[in-house]
Amino acid sequence: MSPNKPQVSVLGLGMMGSALAAAFLKAGHPVTVWNRSPAKTGPLVAQGALPAETAAEAVAAGNTVVVCLLTNDNVQELFDTLGDAVSGKTLVNLTNGTPAQARELSAWATQHGADYLDGGIMAVPQMIGGPHAYVFYSGPQQTFEAHRETLAVLGGTKFAGTDPGLAALNDLALLTGMYGMVLGVMQAFALVRTENIPATEFSELLVPWISAMLAGAPEWAKAVDSGEHLTDVSSLAVNQAAFPNFLATFRDQGVSPELFEPFQAILDRAIEQGYEADGLSRIADLLKK
Ligand code: NDP
User: Fold this and answer.
1) How far is the CA of 84 from the centre of ligand 1 (A)?
2) Is the CB of 19 under 6 A from ligand 1?
3) Which among 85, 97, 114, 221 could bridge 72 via Cys, Cβ 3.0 to 4.6 Å?
4) What string of pLDDT tens digits covers the 289 residues of the chain?
């Protein structure tokens, strides 16, 4: 522990909160920890953390108060019990949540005299403090700059903007891309397994295929930003004509089409609206409500 390093408090010692607290300890910060179920403080106390009996005690001990609970509803409940005890502190909430929740929590913090940064962690606990972890932060830029060095022990620090909702938005958008990919991979595995092709064998084809397709994303992004979706690669007309083959094959092979049926509806809508010559990038516009 180094006396020159800012005192950090960590509220919430689940898998992620424990990894965050351990990283601060490893970097030499004095760390106070609090968890609803006190038993989880044990391993961190063994690493040099001070246990707080109450959340208010932990808040009082820290300059930077890092919060990592399961949901932002849990965070709001906890903040309500703290009230003005947060006054003068910087709350850094790394709980996964929505942009709207982040804005509400930020407004609550301001009303109670605290600075607030919202964060979105792009790592699993084992990656915290390592070279591939990073965290999005949003809120007042000077608050971010004042705490950046401390927060950097967790991983890279990416400032998403002064609107407190932007860290959550970036986080959720990255995870949206991930979930889309995972669902496609699982559907492909489910399909090949109907003919006893092992998923492990098929993944050797799937991984390079998806990687090659993903290399087109920067071009799709240019089309989305410019609104110029005309393509000479693969038109919506061609995709709309082919897509019934996917749904029919899923049904014929005994695989649920439920994940992919909505895509047929979007392709049909694209054609109805006259976008047959456009590429798949048009879908980002069609999804906008
Ligand atoms: P865990 O389930 O391991 O921990 C949840 C934590 O929230 C525990 O400390 C739990 O306390 C606490 N908690 C739950 N409800 C309440 C409540 N009502 N009041 C006070 N404390 C409460 O989850 P993780 O640590 O894995 O995740 C924490 C956050 O980090 C989540 O928002 C998650 O989405 C996010 N995250 C997690 C990642 C991961 O890979 N694990 C990756 C990126 C983000 P108790 O021990 O008493 O139950």
Assistant:
1) 24
2) no
3) 97
4) 666 899 999 999 999 999 999 999 999 999 999 999 999 999 999 999 999 999 999 999 998 999 999 999 999 999 999 999 999 999 999 999 999 999 999 999 999 999 999 999 999 999 999 999 999 999 999 999 999 999 999 999 999 999 999 999 999 999 999 999 999 999 999 999 999 999 999 999 999 999 999 999 999 999 999 999 998 889 999 999 999 999 999 999 999 999 999 999 999 999 999 999 999 999 999 999 8
How large is the greatest C-alpha to C-alpha distance in the chain, in angstroms?
68
Query: How far apart (Å, rounded) are the C-alpha atoms in residues 289 and 286?
Result: 8
pTM above 0.70, yes or no: yes
Specify the residue with its C-alpha closest to ligand 1, atom 14. Answer: 70
**SS3 annotation, 118-149:** EEEEECCHHHCCCCCCEEEEECCHHHHHHHHH
- Measure 144 CA to ligand 1 centroid, in angstroms: 23
Q: State whether the beta carbon of 170 lies less than 6 angstroms from ligand 1.
A: no
Question: Quick one: which atom of ligand 1 is closest to the CA of 19?
Answer: 25
Cα 157 to ligand 1 centroid, rounded to whole Å: 21
Query: Which tokens hold the place of 214?
Result: 């993903």
- Give the atom of ligand 1 at the shortest distance from the alpha carbon of 124: 40
Ligand 1 contact via 121 beta carbon (within 6 Å): yes
Task: Please list, in sequence order, all residues whose beta carbon lies within 8 angstroms of the beta carbon of residue 142, skipping any fewer than 6 positions away.
Answer: none
Structural domains of the chain, with CATH: 8-161 (3.40.50.720), 170-286 (1.10.1040.10)
Nearest CA to ligand 1 atom 1: 14
